[in-house]
Amino acid sequence: MRPSIWKSVxxxxxxxxxxxxxxxxxxxxxxxxxxxGAAGGIGQPLALLMKLNPLVSRLALYxxxxxxxxxxxxxxxxxxxxxxGYVGEEQLGQALEGSDVVIIPAGVPRKPGMTxxxxxxxxxxxxxxxxxxxxxxCPNALVNxxxxxxxxxxxxxxxxxxKAGTYNERKLVGVTTLVVVRAKTFYAGKAKVPVAxxxxxxxxxxxxxxxxxxxxxxxxxxxxxxxxxxxxxxRTQDGETxxxxxxxxxxxxxxxxxxxxxxxxxxxxxxxxxxPDVIECSFVQSNVTELPFFASKVRxxxxxxxxxxxxxxxxxxxxxxxxxxxxxxxxxxxKGVKFAHQS
Length: 343
What we know:
L-2-Hydroxyisocaproate Dehydrogenase, Chain A, domain 2; 343 residues
């Protein structure tokens, strides 16, 4: 086993303290992780990163095609987890049974001529189908939702689980770690501080203006101007567009998303294993605002989301951003709920 590789990956994301506390007793636990959409652009690097995580004892890789090859490839990595590949709807139940954590990066990228509604309907349908299977085969699993748009797919999943009678608000989390990773990177560059020491909470949602970095709470503190904070906020909100344009329309953020998904899944596993003070930002059922779902810092533990933390003190600029994002986030949540109730 080569835990040093994973430690190196983790330390660059400011997780060295949790590693020291979590890798001892945590590595002895038997934990199964299922990745749904494992043959895709996010799924493949995510599968590799989860294979490197010593907290994983069994890794189930599922997709509608191509999974046996991905599983064979990843299984040759000399870490402790056993890897199995599953393909097609008839094997979805086998992939899910006994899973402690289910990660869902499944979906299709936007293609030429495809409207946003076209993309939404396809990905929302995929999420609805997968969550129906989760409710049947592993209703107690902690579900990590990556599939976009997270602002809508998390509410879709919640409604599916409610219909099945398995909904547990502590066990459904929208992965917003990518925007946190971006904010840390951008802030470190502007503030000229080591990125491994940076922490930036992000609240709201996971698309466009619904993404609200709280740079007023960023650490280490830096004396940045209002214009610099505004520019950092906009760059964080537009991070996906930056990648799409750099790839000249031939892809989106797959590698950084896989990295972020692996960071968050690791936090979930540590929480399930009883590591104390595991705190990450996530899009969850919430009472922080009047909206039923909202991204903020959460404390992860043996039951999943143990506590949803409040906003804390925010600047006037951030208060304006919060007010501006609410209508759009509300509409996205309602769109997801409406889709979930369509036959």
